[in-house]
Prior knowledge:
The chain is of the alpha+beta class. The chain has helices at about 10-25, 35-45, 50-60, 65-70, 95-100, 100-110, 155-165, 180-190, 205-215; strands at about 85-90, 120, 125-130, 140-145, 145-150. It is built from 9 helices and 5 strands. A 5-stranded mixed β-sheet has the order 2-3-1-4-5. It starts with 10 loop residues before the first helix and ends in a 58-residue tail after the last helix.
Amino acid sequence: MPQLPAPAYPAEVRARLEADAKEVIARYPGSRSALLPLLHLVQSEEGYVSRTGMAFCAELLGLTTAEVTAVATFYTMYRRRPSGDYQVGVCTNTLCAVMGGDAIFDRLKEHLGVGNDETTADGKVTLEHIECNAACDFAPVVMVNWEFFDNQTPESATRLVDDLIAGRTVEPTRGAPLCTYKETARILAGFPDTRPGAVEASGGAGPASLAGLKLAKGEGASQARVVGPRGEAPRDTPPHEPSPSEHLSSHDAPQHTSASDPEHPAGPAAEEGE
């Protein structure tokens, strides 16, 4: 059945969101480019992108609700229904799954009594499997409101969600201190994180991420430099000379083709039986 038009925001909510939205739109030479941060803005109000939020974005940007809906349904960071204060995402992609991600996800589903993309009855935690958290060197990884919790186990992940539900302080392995999902959405909309020390706590790559870089610089156990500085050839490793029996790839040396190998010219393929 066709849906009724989305209800409008209350007047005071609309006035506040409109002021913020105009600030966001002013950052871009074309207003349409502001759609992604505006979706985060309306998500910070309700905890998800509602039909009201999409109608609001469409009106301010001069788009149709269909155009806004197409974007909101494409990106998984936009929730389409009410969610918890803490979005707990468990990576179940290949490496994390092999290292225990599937076991973590199954344990949390059983422990919380919810399935994928479902929220606990108290509204605290929404559980979701994520295809990749882009932190494979710390697998298995769990994210809470997009902050990293590395090298997790079913037991540590269970303690994590219990602490979240109980309101106890939880510290990410890397990154800024946790805040609620609505607060995270406002930061993603491009507004400053005003919490003392939060920006400085974001940090950089962890030791596991830097191991390959240190090896390349010759800082590993072997002290052998793997690659040279940018713009220079490697100095410590002689050029590779493959043996006749070694399988060559296209990166090693030119291979004989029909154009360069007169003894084996390429001709038209014959039909079977000819």
